[in-house]
Amino acid sequence: MAEPTIEDYLVEDRIFPPPTDFVANALVTDRSMYHEAEADFEAFWARQARELITWFDDFGTVLEWDLPFAKWFIGGTLNVSYNCLDRHVEAGRGDKVAYYWEGEPGDTRAITYRELYEEVCRFANVLKGLGVSRGDRVAIYMPMIPELPVAMLACTRIGAPHSVIFGGFSPDSIVDRVNDAEAKVIITADGGFRRGSVSPLKPNVDVALDQTPSVEHVVVVRRGDNDVSMAEGRDHWYHDLMAHASTECPPERMDSEDLLYLLYTSGTTAKPKGIMHTTGGYLTQVAFTHKYVFDLHPDTDVYWCAADIGWVTGHSYIVYGPLANGATSVIYEGTPDTPGRDRLWSIVEKYGVTQLYTAPTAIRTFMKWGHEEPQKHDLSSLRLLGTVGEPINPEAWMWYHRYIGGERCPIVDTWWQTETGAQMVTSLPGVIPTKPGSATIPLPGIFGEVVDDNGNPIERGGGYWTLTKPWPSMLRGIWGDPERYKQTYWSRFPGRYFAGDGAKIDEDGYIWFLGRVDDVMNVSGHRISTTEVESALVDHPAVAEAAVVGASDPVTGQAIVGYVILKGRVEQTPELVEEIRQHVAKKIGPTARPKAVIPVPDLPKTRSGKIMRRLLRDVLEGRDLGDTTTLADAGVVEEIRRRAAESPQED
Ligand code: PRX
């Protein structure tokens, strides 16, 4: 039996069975899907593909697996925009709302499936008119406005893979991504609303355009009304082009394995990787997971994923999954604190949101703002909550459960990645009891194991999370670099996909993600996960958020340093700081007690909300900070540096 390789300190024995009222109406209430997939996973996925997707030509072979290259649903042809739009209109659901859109300043739009269909057809014709044809790449750099899903769907209609670049990125990031994909067209907006003012986009594109020779045309949506310059012949207003476009645009028949989109993931140093997703397998798994993990009842639900479409979460769970399933969703343009810290909760109340999907980093921010904010609103429409993007600390989970879910909503903690395309490890909410902080077990049709340094499976305890079978929405490679694909994901453990995450498995076979293995600390030979120490810190009633890093230490190899954000009204005293430090020892053991606990006003995060532990280590070890361009707020680091220099350190 292989030995655990990462310490397993945190004991969490709270367990929440699916609530009875929820189970009474749940789509799935027993384990038969798990058994079916266990017995024959290809047949299981083939059934999902045929039930959830409309194919122009049925597929023959389900899976061709030439490790690490997979092809799913071979010979099948389909069109993604047809599946997301036409078939719902043809079935008589054209008047159903696809999106309730809420602009940050308070302007709103309700867009039906028929309206969305017509707008997509017109824009698909616009793209054709600009010379975009099947196989050409189109870059999209937009705020969270309805024209963003329109642009994506129009691309899929004509078979042009899109590359969405998150609207918060700088001109440099645009240059890298546009050039790597050799995009022919960029679709953007003048600007979008964030935190009460217009954040300009077209001016960033203008800076990038000096260095992007492949771009022939730029289409600009008017949103912010900020001044922009338009180059004659190259730049076009969206509304001008749309005014003359026809609503007739037959969908292109795409092969199941045709490229659907590229989405770049930023490595911390290396050049961004263009993650490739293809058509049939991707759509099957996003539709499957969106339906069953969120227990979608399309006729009555108002579903809301509060992510940005610029990340994979938005691609899969704002655009493709919900639309393929004919759902009604909410899209919100702006930030959660505009005009007040209760904006999200006012939106939940206004639209009667039934499912809410957000990130642990957002939940911890809401905790810091206090439960009085959600209590200003009636949240009783909610019946399910979801999280994604990071491990959720058990106390943040409990807060979400209590103050947002009113103790009646199951929480689906969904583990997945840009590379996996769709959710992989999480609970079917009517079936699987949840434990705060655990993503629970792999979904039906998904197979994974925790392994030790040598790739041997561990039955209990901490190690590396690996996937052992291909899955329909898996990445098909890195654009232009098959070697890097093999090297990055398939070389550490032969025959297994290694995602870079540590995880532990408990006596019930539940998976507890422990963060990126690059962040695992080594203290006197104990490998300790940052996630577990952070959860122990957040367990203290005064702490809203924590980030833990291992700084090099002459005696112990690495020493644990915990940065904490205190809750709103808590007063910071040396006694409190010491109490928080000791709390970790009490909660998970003295080996994990931080050498120092440093209260800070904020933490350095990427724009998708992940804590940049590398920067925190650099601060502690006095290193130059290197590349900080992916940081959401660069000023935070200076303040942390100052606090770190002043902080006492104990042994
Ligand atoms: O470390 C895991 C963490 O986020 C990484 C993937 O990030 P990204 O490609 O940006 O996609 C985020 C949205 C899917 C993973 O390798 N992660 C994501 N979800 C969870 C998680 N860690 C723990 N629990 C989760 N539920």
What does this structure look like?
With 651 residues, the chain is of the alpha/beta class. 32% of the residues lie in helices and 22% in strands. It is built from 20 helices and 29 strands. The chain has a seven-stranded mixed sheet, with helices on both faces. The chain has a seven-stranded mixed sheet with strand order 12-11-8-6-7-14-15, sandwiched between helices. A four-stranded antiparallel sheet has the order 21-22-23-24. Bound molecules: adenosine-5'-monophosphate-propyl ester.
Number of domains: 4
CATH architecture of the largest domain: 3-Layer(aba) Sandwich
CATH superfamily of the largest domain: ANL, N-terminal domain
The CATH topology label of the largest domain is: Rossmann fold
Report, as a whole number of angstroms, the end-to-end distance.
36 Å
What's the story with the biggest beta sheet?
Answer: 7 strands, mixed
How much helix is in the residues?
A: 25-40%
Strand order of the largest sheet: 5-4-17-16-18-19-20
Count of β-strands: 29
What ligands are attached or bound here? adenosine-5'-monophosphate-propyl ester
Query: What value does the Rg take, in angstroms?
Result: 24 Å
Structural class of the secondary structure composition? alpha/beta
Q: Give the DSSP E fraction (strand runs of 2 or more residues).
A: 15-25%
Q: What is the 3D form?
A: globular
CATH C-level class of the largest domain is Alpha Beta
Unreliably modeled segments: none
